[in-house]
Design goal:
alpha/beta; Rossmann fold; 49% helix; 15 helices; Tyrosyl-Transfer RNA Synthetase; seven-stranded mixed beta sheet; 2 domains; globular; binds tryptophan
Length: 364
């Protein structure tokens, strides 16, 4: 039987290449040359796969209108794992995409017992505020709550149920309850929203996701194809790697040791780096002889995902660490300097973003 991905469960990927083969996702390598102002996330292979991104890039390079859409279930502090998505939003906004961001408060209510008001507060105070501080022009994004979508959005999410069978849902998700079914159809409406008539009709849309969201992408692509009342272009997707938690397990908002928040004190961030899981060997002698287990090292991951933009520099650190020329302690030192530098600047920007948030949502 085909392996299933549970978007509401937890998933850990050992081998990304094997995974994309299994699910029919294309290697990003094949389209990399067509990416305008190629972001280092592509070169660093933090974005490793895609569906139909080649077609999307063609439209981009031909000066056609295009959009990027993403959504999130707000779940606590905004941390470095979330920053990746914000970086993607900024990148696509900078190359001229129309940006849509859904706050999945309906999904969080249905699948995580999160009250709508709480989702709202976290989305604004944590996510939106950090988006602003990270340089996203929020006046030019379509930022909305699933619970407050337009009449047409609500209509479409219901009509889409006609394009999906129970067997298909079962094949993709396994046993699925009404709450999850509603979440899936709502997400399909999110992903197709940039193509609704009120938003200018059919256009190429890309959705950056972790592979846990791929079931929704596949289903939405089918819905886009089958829906009769309006034409849709099948949405494209790009796949970002998961950042592991600092302690080596999952990065999770419910475990503060596993992440560094973007408003965290520099002192606390450094402490977390000091106790992070490394790929260093037991003894200095062994480390120098055999080199580090770079793939196991979460400090390296933090550097590659967030703290060092230059892909050549990342490759160089990888090689040296892999050969044992750099020690784990030295790697941590680099990370601590970089994070201090970043957080110092970011905290100032967060203070400024606070004003903007108050302007946008005076009642909060
Ligand atoms: N299901 C996503 C999550 O668990 C949130 C989400 C809702 C989403 N709508 C979306 C993601 C549209 C991408 C595109 O995080």
């Amino acid at each position: 039987m085909e392996e299933k991905i549970d978007p509401w469960g937890s998933i850990q990927i050992k081998d990304y290449e094997e995974t994309i083969d299994k699910f029919g996702i294309e290697d990003i390598k094949k389209v990399v040359k067509a990416i305008p102002k190629e972001h280092s996330m592509f070169k660093k292979k933090i974005i490793y796969g895609h569906r139909d991104f080649g077609k999307y890039l063609k439209a981009v390079n031909n000066g056609k209108e295009f959009a990027m859409m993403t959504g999130m279930m707000p779940s606590g502090k905004f941390h470095f794992g979330h920053k990746l998505v914000a970086d993607m939003i900024k990148y696509f906004q900078d190359i001229g995409a129309d940006i849509y961001v859904a706050v999945a408060d309906i999904e969080a209510y249905l699948t995580r017992d999160m009250p709508l008001e709480k989702s709202r507060e976290i989305a604004i105070r944590e996510y939106l505020k950090n988006y602003i501080a990270l340089g996203i022009d929020v006046d030019r994004i379509n930022f909305y709550f699933q619970s407050e979508g337009s009449t047409n959005y609500n209509k479409m999410s219901k009509l889409f149920s006609k394009n999906v069978t129970q067997n298909e849902l079962k094949a993709i998700y396994g046993d699925i309850n009404p709450g999850k079914t509603v979440s899936v159809l709502t997400q399909a409406a999110d992903i197709l929203l940039p193509q609704f008539e009120e938003n200018g009709g059919p256009k190429p849309v890309v959705v950056p996701v972790g592979i846990d969201q791929d079931p929704h992408i596949r289903l939405t692509r089918d819905i886009a194809y089958r829906f009769k009342e309006q034409k849709f272009i099948k949405p494209s997707s790009i796949y970002t790697k998961f950042m592991r938690g600092l302690t080596g397990g999952k990065m999770s908002s419910s475990d503060p040791k596993s992440y560094i928040a973007l408003d965290e004190s520099i002192e606390s961030a450094k402490k977390k780096i000091d106790s992070a899981k490394t790929g260093g060997k037991q003894s200095l002698k062994e480390h120098r002889e055999k080199g580090a287990d770079v793939e196991k090292d979460v400090v390296f991951e933090l550097l590659a995902f967030n703290l060092i933009e230059d892909d050549e520099r990342i490759k160089q650190i990888y090689r040296k660490y892999d050969k044992g020329e750099i020690l784990s302690g030295e790697l941590k030192q680099i990370a601590k300097e970089k994070i201090e530098d970043f957080l110092k600047k970011h905290h100032k920007k967060l203070d400024e973003a606070e004003k903007k948030i108050e302007e946008m949502f005076p009642q909060i």
